[in-house]
Request: fold
Amino acid sequence: MAAIKPHGDLSRRDVLKVLSLIPVVSMLQPLGKILGEAADVGTPNVIVIVFDAWSAHDVGLLGYPRQTMPNLERFAANAIVYHNHYSAGTFTVPGTASLLTGLYPWSHRALQLGGGIIRPHIKHEVFTAVQGALSTVGYTQNTYADVIMGQAEKYINNHIRTGSFNLEDDFLYNLPVFKNDTLISYAAIEDNIFNLGGKGTTGSLFAAPISNYLLSRQKLLLNEKWAKEYPDGLPDSDSNGVYTLEGVVEGVIQALSEIKEPTFAYLHFLPPHEPYDPTAEFIKAFDDNLHLVDKPVHPLAYKSVDWSGLQRRRRLYDQYLASWDQAVHKLFDFLQTSGLRDNSYIFVTADHGELFERGETGHFTPLIYDPLVHIPLIVSKPGQTGRRDISTPTSNVDILPTVARLTNITPPDWVEGALLPGLGGIEDTNRSIFVMDAKEDSSYGPLTKFSASISRNGYRLTHYHYSTYEGFELYNLVDDPEELENLYDASPSIAHSLQDELAQKIADVNRPYEKK
Amino acid sequence: MMWLRKILLQTLESLQRRLPPSAQVAAVFSFVLFLAAGYSIYSFFFNLPSSLYYFNTFEIISVFSYIMFFDLFESLLVTAVLAAVSAFLPGKWFREGFVYKAVLVTLALAAGSILLQNAMLMNNVPPLRQVAEGVLILALVCAVLILLFQKILILQKTFVNIIERFEIFAYIYIPLGVIGSIIVLIRNLFQWQR
Reply:
């Protein structure tokens, strides 16, 4: 190609050559635009759907004899089903914080009811990680989870108010005026000023009792109105306000239908969290002879419900789960018919499980047993056909790095999780999975009163470390899934190997706090 | 427009005449604030040990600020309602002896509120009829006490004397409420997550 002559010396041919390039150059801009749009269309959404207090032990898909969730099973027919997925925490605060940060509770330090993620890790929430790549939507019915999510408020493009889809919206803390300060406004307004709580009094002498009374009256009226559909009362949770299962599902569908650009959506439903209020259709379901194993009451159990009481509670939980499955199938159908399933990674999981054994019912307990921490994880890839089952152990700290990877972001180096197998990760059977409950410890000090467990190669070792009780329990989860035979003394080599690793881990995480 | 101004001025003057003297309103406000703040500080200290596990010092001060801000607001509202009632009722009913009458009503309101809380604590939502009966009983007790105080002047004088001494607490709670309001305002004007 002849060199272009210096200015003033251009030949007619050179000018024609340059002019001939104009249409090509002018085409490049729209082409770039078209490619950009194509890239946008190609960027998948990531939708994380969380059911609160949802144990893998009560899901037919994962081996439970009662068919509690047939609609979920249909959804899972074209998804990856993780059979050994664990929450790092035993209740909403640590469980949700681990899911959102990719960190274990000993790092994010959201350890107590009402607590939050400590300052160094706030910017590690998943909403921050996907900034720039995806638009973000956050919704949770659980106020404790909402407070944690609210800590990353400035990175959430659309933070849907907790009570938005409830029949009543009792909250003041999440009014837009307090959106810059949710953690403290919740503690002050809801915990101190308006809620009765353990102290038996509200902080406000005049306004709160009157407003609480009026709201309770309203609840009674709503329960009467919906008595045919919900004979045991409408689903509710303390200060969360009553709601219908269908109502929250429809609200979320509406929110999802407004998605216009590649989005990360975190949608955290309260069901099947207690109180368990099944619909009329399921109120007599599971009247079977399912015999649950009777297990001795644990010395650390807060309650001591007898075996028949636990059986009744579990049946009620299953009925509620079936009611929830019936309601949530509309969401699964919407994901399919709207086309979202074709261009989204959809995670369906829980923040923690639920326990009905050893005297305990629910999840407010220092105990760590499989039903409390073994949670479902089902991931549908864009346009996936057919089901894939993965049995290697995974943890909810793996969600954040996996989401980052799926959105073409390098997983941050501070995460304690790994990429999920089937989504860029490897099936590592030797991996150690941890669970921690330290609600009696300070977020700003070393861990001194805790329950912690480590699982590896099919074994789980749990260390209960309290001033009133010290003990180790080792179970073979493959041969003894009911965790009945403590092998701590019988298998010393396995026990000590796991114990050493756990002790080392706790020593490591405690080190920065020791001087304080 | 002169006529409108005249009507407005007359209305204001009449309202001013009907409202209790400001010193009396201030005495009642101090007492209401003392009750409201004392009650919520008790609640705050009940929650404090658990808060220490997950909040740092400034966060705990912030929680306290919200509470003080709310107390100030609530007390102003209650006092305003009491003053408004005195403006609308015949002077002899409420405006004369405003301090002891308003304080007795406040005490009845507080007692009713605590009784309602206790009923609700037992997971019991009292029916409207029961609440109305309770309100009626408290109103009667209040009316009897007001009559008693009207008849026995020494009782009235001693009571008002005691109430006026509560003004000292206003010198603590009003600044705390104002500082609390400023902290709440700052925390919500700016992005103030941890």
In short: Chain B touches chain A through 48 residues (CB under 8 Å). Chain B has a mean pLDDT of 91. Chain B has one domain: 23-46+57-189.
